[in-house]
Amino acid sequence: NAGVTQTPKFQVLKTGQSMTLQCAQDMNHNSMYWYRQDPGMGLRLIYYSASEGTTDKGEVPNGYNVSRLNKREFSLRLESAAPSQTSVYFCATTGWGTYEQYFGPGTRLTVT
Amino acid sequence: ELKVEQNPLFLSMQEGKNYTIYCNYSTTSDRLYWYRQDPGKSLESLFVLLSNGAVKQEGRLMASLDTKARLSTLHITAAVHDLSATYFCAVDLIQGAQKLVFGQGTRLTINP
């Protein structure tokens, strides 16, 4: 039982390149989230998905797209990376009727 | 716009001492979360406070919630070095959706 997994763990991109961050959970949870954490700051919500097939914007959605592929997987795509997107990205999940969010290990992304 | 503010942002204390971290938020919410983050690691859920007057304790940590004052506290009793970490509080942006808004974090260093 791995909980929440994210790939890759580290990534370096050049400005303008694209990439997809992957998140998978084996907790049978409905809701999944993508956050970013900039140095010395708290997390900010990028997108969220209440269930398979639905997505909604969070605080900072610009420059990102998401896909809720199935109940287990929620991916985050950067179409044209910018240095301002250098950050640590965390995926999280929570189940119906529970209140705790369980976080993945994070992806450290650097855009040069 | 929901704002969540923590203070202090940095706290250096000696082992054996007591201290309190404060979390203020700007709009009505009766659900508040506390997380711990070790350097380079993901977030670990500490407490979920679900109603006014809620108090939860785990070891040397105790959290409370006053929804009327829009204030939560995390109290550390007889601090030990292992409690050194960054502590975040978070509040639901939309109740039930668990779209969390995080505070900036309090970096706690406990010296022998």
Description:
The complex is a heterodimer of chains A (112) and B (112). With 112 residues, chain A is mostly beta strands. Chain A is built from no helices and eleven strands. Chain A has strands at residues 4-7, 10-13, 19-25, 31-37, 43-49, 56-57, 64-68, 74-78, 87-94, 102-103, 107-111. In chain A, strands 2, 4, 5, 6, 9, 10 and 11 form a seven-stranded mixed sheet that branches. In chain A, strands 1-3-8-7 form a four-stranded antiparallel sheet, with no helix packed on it. In chain A, 36% of the residues are buried. Helix content of chain B is 0%, strand content 55%. Chain B contains no helices and eleven strands. Chain B has strands at residues 4-7, 10-14, 19-25, 32-37, 43-49, 55-58, 61-66, 71-76, 85-92, 100-102, 106-111. In chain B, strands 2, 4, 5, 9, 10 and 11 form a six-stranded mixed sheet that branches. The termini of chain B are far apart. Chains A and B meet through strand 5 and strand 10 of A and strand 5 and strand 10 of B.
